[in-house]
Predict the 3D structure of the following.
Amino acid sequence: MVSDEQLQVEKAEYICTLTINRPERRNALTIDLMYRLGDTLRALGEDGETRVVVMRGAGEKAFCAGMDLRGGMTVAQDEMEKKGNPLDYLRSGIIECRRPVIAMICGAAVGAGCDVAAACDIRMAADNARMGINPVKMGSVYWPVGTQSLTNVVGRTWARELFFTGRFVEAAQALRIGLVNHVVPAAELHARTYALAQEIAENGPLAVAATKAIFNRLLERRRPSEDDVADMMTLVNSVESSADRKEGLRAFIEKRKPDFAGR
Amino acid sequence: MEENVLLVEKKDYVCTLTINRPEKRNALTVEVMYRLGDVLEELKDDSEVRVVVLRGAGEKAFCAGLDLRGGIQPDDAEKMQKGNPMEYARGSVMDFPKPTIAMIYRNAMGAGCDLATACDLRVASDTLRMGINPVKLGSVYYPEPIQNMINVVGLAWAKELFFTGRFIDAETAKEIGLVNHVASEEELASKTYELAQEIAENGPLAVSATKVIFNRLMKYQKLSPEERAEIEALRDVVAQSEDQREGMIAFMEKRKADFKGR
């Protein structure tokens, strides 16, 4: 559980802060970073000095702007084999972490960044927050488990609108639909987040951990089965290999609207 | 069993159940909880009742929580038959085949909040304080009311409420959907009975069938006996912890608890 350049780990008064530290890339997640975060969260569950985890991004521009697949292809193959899909590994690390995890969101939380924030237990956002998951705009499908976890947060009506439009929502809208618990002025984000973390840290840590375990148990039945996930991944992969997907990527690179043909 | 801990009045198809222990801020004794379940059982098939309003007596509280030592203690046979009193009361409210409205005057805390959340609709006074705070005492609440809270306010706010143990005011409760309506203390009753009346004027078979549909749709959320046992084991570990003792002692000594995580 060591801090490195990309991930800072700081502990003070029972609160552990995990900072994604790649402000120059708007804190986009490399594969390596997702594994480090997943490992750290798993270790923090057993750490008696940590009662609440705060996840944040460095700088003012973004909590996390998504995935940065260029940034970290150096990951060892055996780590991939052991830990599986890196985003799934990170998301399950947050969900299964015994301690409550609070996302402190300044600026963009989009794509995988929105997914990660939605997996946290509580979200505190600055008034400049923008959130959403937009792969459909590029002719691509998002992953089923992330789709489920966001649906658990905002309900199926809004989850569908978000995933079908690929729209990013502003802070006020995010608050209305329950995607974030609180919206505060950017200047107060830090103080308000840590006041909330402190409020939880003062409660009985065993009781809080058991309460989180109950939440997880109650939600377990809403998780798709392995067979369902396999079915959905087949569907995802068929879209990934479509002509539309290629057109979507090309249009994105050429900064124009894609012309989808539906095949 | 004395009748007067729970008042039952029927008028214009609306039946009002009043928890009548104002001197104890309507805290729930075992007797009140069993009685509430029994009365709802009787009202199930009563065609003169289309809507139930649940409220507390007096000016201080809807219900301030549990009072397990107060009131008349039921005999062992009744305990055996009805099981955990809070589960019996909550289950009766949830399974009741007609709409239930909680009319919340000021405080709905702990088991009071639990009971209000088990009702279908909630109308509260603007002086509301509502929440469930066992984590502050190092203790864990029960899974069913946590599920109810998720269903009512959504996952994120349910977590914030149960992790912080905070009591929230009327404005926040309205904002997050924990209560349907807020009214001044003077207007609370008229607003509540207007809503009850509005429902009572609809086709009672249709309304009742609609409630049964809601209940069926939620049925998959009920825990299996294995899952329940697993959660109970988890709760037992916390119940036997040093933190739980410290929480109780701190509460009685009116100081902040110093939790160690063991």
Q: What stands out?
A: The two ends of chain A are 46 Å apart (CA to CA). The interface with chain B takes residues 48, 51, 100, 121-123, 152-155, 178-181, 196, 199-200, 202-208, 210-215, 217-219, 221 of chain A (CB under 8 Å).
